[in-house]
Amino acid sequence: MDLRLHQAFFSAVRSGDVDAVRAVVDAADDSASLTAAQAEGGETALYIAAEGNMEELCRYLLPLYTLETATVRSRLDLDAFHVAAKSGHTGIVKEFLNKWPEACKICDSSNTSPLYSAAAKDHLDIVNAILDVDESNARIVRKNGKTSLHHVSRIGYYRIVKTLIQRDPEVVTVIDKKGQSALHMAVKGKNPDVVEELLMADVSILNLRDKKGNTALHIATRKWRPQMVQLLLTYESIEVNAINNQKETALDLAEKMPYGESQKEIIESLLEHGAKKACNVGKVDENSELRRTVSDIKHNVHEQLIQNAKTNKRVSNIKKELKKLHREAVQNTINSVTMVAVLIASIAFIGIFNLPGEYQQDGPDTGKAYIANRIGFRAFCLLNATALFISLAVVVVQITLVAWDTGAQKLVISIVNKMMWSACLSTCGAFLSLAYVVVGKQQWMAIAVTAVGGPIMASTLLFLGYLVLRQRFKFGEDKERRIKRASGSKSFSWSLHSDQASDIDAFSDNDKKIYAL
């Protein structure tokens, strides 16, 4: 072949210019010699286009090649399809598979398949494209006996592992020349999801031994993988005391590890599940049993401490909620008192200017009430004025004082409440005194109103007075508190929460359904 034509052809290919490549091919006397030509590194034009992800150029070159010329390997031991799969060029891979589906089975000198190379680079789309053509590619093994599943399990590519297993679940049982399955490889890595996926496909590989007699538990221990050891031990069918060809159990291997956090975690996990040294397998190891018992006690105490912490947190939250509700109740009482005080003051103010019989309109006594000389009216004026000024005093106190603390708010309310009692009594007395004036000669009506209203007000105030005295002098509460504490001391669990008793007593005033101030 003309050297200048050869150079022009590969220069056009590397540029990715399809028109330039077509022009060179059309100018050549023998296009087959161009397609068979190789660059300095042994690459064909199709190889260069595939490696460079030149999809349009590959589409033009593919019809010019046969499967034999398309699969010529470069000095890197890869052909055009293999390098496209390894590089993650999905479009080019699909073009190859459409023309030559069998290209996916052509391996390099180490029997590495394109699927293996794509999976090793986590190219999921290419893995799916190859398996869509032929799912048996998942069973192709390298010269060392490893499948693509072995390799990706070691790396920890979960989505590739899941895809391979979904296409061929039996691939998890394939072993390499060392007798190791994909599970042996997975526990060397750090992705527990991969281990779970493999065991979900076939749990029988859990205790599979390699040619040295090592199970996955041996390998995980030797590789210092505490998380993997703990995961494997969660399976009931695990043989925790399996002995390898060197007469070692997983516990023997763990004790040979350098001292550190990983060794501590692995040994503790193994002992919790009854692990023994090889020399003690089949014998009653008192030391191991003692360590296991201590470990169980430690675990139980730890769980109890966690539960205690959760209980303390719940009690603290309940305390906060009760305090919040109590503050809201006190604030609602303050608002209600203010509103009632304004209402009584308004009624008292309006009542003095809306008397029965009205006022004199002329003469020297203009504006004087017609009933001004009656004793009942004079009592009404005195009591009405008392209710008015007490209510106004309450309003002034409520709009002036700002009490942030709940205790201070309760003190203000206890004082203001007594003033409101006086205002209510004054209003009641004013109403009754004026009733004797309004009814005229029918005094029995006023007496009947007094007989009805007086006992109602008196019984109400007596009951409220009892509640106030009970709140102040704690009637009957000492006995109830002694009973509660005595019943609580009978339980051992209560002693663990004794530090909570003071907290509960601290807000015992807040958990009453009702009390008076």
From TrEMBL:
InterPro entries: Ankyrin_rpt, Ankyrin_rpt-contain_sf, PGG_dom. It is a multi-pass membrane protein. Keywords: ANK repeat, Membrane, Repeat, Transmembrane, Transmembrane helix. PROSITE patterns: ANK_REP_REGION, ANK_REPEAT. The keyword DNA repair does not apply. Residues 328-438 form the PGG domain. Gene3D superfamilies: Ankyrin repeat-containing domain. Its main location: membrane. It is found in: Membrane. Pfam families: Ank_2 (PF12796), PGG (PF13962). ANK repeats lie at residues 178-211. One of its GO terms (cellular component) is plasma membrane. SUPFAM superfamilies: Ankyrin repeat (SSF48403). The chain crosses the membrane at residues 333-355, 375-404, 416-438, 444-469. It comes from the Eukaryota. This is PGG domain-containing protein. It comes from Rhynchospora breviuscula.
